[in-house]
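Example record

One chain of 418 residues, shown exactly as stored in the release files.
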Amino acid sequence: MTSRERVLAALNHQTPDRVPVDFSGHRSSGIHAIAYARLRKHLGLSERPLRVYDVIQQMAVVDEDVLDIFDVDTIELGRAFATEDRYWHDWVLPDGTPCQVPIWITPERDGTRWVLRSSTGRVLAQMPDGALYFEQTYYPFLDGVEKFDALAEAFAESMWTAYASPPGPIADGPEGTNVFIEGAKALRRSTDRAILGLFGGNLLEVGQFLYRNDGFFMLLAGEPDRAHEFLDHVVEYHLRNLESYLGKVGPYIDIISFGDDLGMQTGPQISPAMYREFFKPRHARMWKRAKELANVKVMLHCCGGVRELLQDLIEAGLDAINPVQISCRGMEATDLKRDFGDRLTFWGGGCDTREILSRGTPELVRQHVHDQVRALHHNGGFVFQQVHNILADVPPANIVAMFEAVRTADGRQTLPTT
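Predicted structure tokens for this chain:
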């Protein structure tokens, strides 16, 4: 099988020739730039510019040589864009490692922190000294002044929606539209990897981005009519963007990725009843429209313990869920596979990043990955990915052990010794 065929077989609940592997195919399956620099050195690879495409999470562009070493079957649509040096400028990681960031993002030094500003000059995010990520500092609707018919302006003042990763602003405007389409075509021609298009379409999280978590929870619980009005405007905004997005690149992607972190360590952030009232019909509407517009599978990035919501997500039209956070209550791999594995693809759950990948030995990592693959791979419906991104402190030997274990779990040879 080609990589694309392998991933699509898994999504269609057919047993592929081997376990399909995702690494950096989307913004929650990648690696912190600090860990990536150490990984390249550990693998003995030649030096290349260290590029951080997602400045908020400090995520590295994973180079083709690493994708090949680890037999990665996925690639993100953004990899087709901003590849030239002119789109990058120099910066430095929290540990002092030189790197590059996109030219449309300029972190500024402000006392004992780095900050990111909006186009209006407002500080939207900060990374204090000693931190490894940026954190949100401004919430446009927190003060109770809402403009539901001007969501674009609000999004431009919120950390998670203000800063684009590639293709970024180069795909905006009339000329950018052609760049976007031609870039997608070129990537499709150049690779047999499954291509993921990152769309977003967040609902619960958009409320949290704009109102802050506590503010949006209070809106949902205390003013449901106003919450419905807000979410109706959000869905219409997303649908307009979805029509435009898939109208341009729909023929060239295989999976469209939506996002909504619905879970916590102990279970869902909201009750199943609240999910059904506020979010299920709106998810269903967006996911149905995506499938009408293009021949794509729908994946939802959804952190946390969400077992209680899986049946509703399936009924809403979901094909795959990521990252399958197996350390949360109710997210044990064997039980999930038994109860939902014939209807939902588990895109993740391959290795726990919170404890085992970060703090375990390579031997423990290998055994853990073997166990997870055995639990999830049979009869398709599984794409290997570690649980969320590889963090900055993960030892490179553990990363190699993880990908090596995927190979040995299905009987293939191990990675080259380095």
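Notes: Residues 261 and 302 are 4 Å apart (CA to CA).
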